[in-house]
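sanity check this chain:
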Amino acid sequence: MILVFATHNTHKLKEIQALLPQTIEVLSLNDINCTEDIPETAFTIEENALLKAKYINEKYGYSVFADDTGLEVAALNNAPGVFSARYAGEHTNDTENVQLLLKNMENVINRQAQFKTIIALCWENKTYTFEGIAKGTIAEKTLGDNGFGYDPIFIPDGYTRTFAQLSAQEKNRISHRAKAFEKLLHFFKQMS
């Protein structure tokens, strides 16, 4: 069986190839010659993941899964959420997004937040979604050099260090993405 992972990221692809059963051949967008940027125009994380998966499924005819992730901060009405990657503006970077979030959290007592990943799967003419959530709090300042995005300010529940202070192995055991992929893997193990 062939399954496309809607990503150009070869590191993500290898990680998933190692996890899925050998009976499933996982291809990237590069492998199917998809070079276009798939627009993420939806208003929820779920809808964005579904948009990407359905786009590839309809245009290229493959079974496909796509993921989307956002940080939801309780005191900011779950912002930045679906706009996490462009919180500080359309052409900004991780550092600018983090600095704006910290500025918006100045003197805020409730620092509860969660990372949410949704994986959308288009397979055998059906659509499925798998959710992974990592709950935690927003730190007062950036801490750590590992990871990317909001990792330097997100302290997962049960820890005193940010995602950016944890090793990749530690983070991958407890992360939102790992939890969503665990559900996807469980689905495929049940089907095989």
User: Anything to note?
Assistant: Residues 45-60 form the longest helix (16 residues). The CA atoms of residues 4 and 27 lie 5 Å apart. The mean pLDDT is 92.
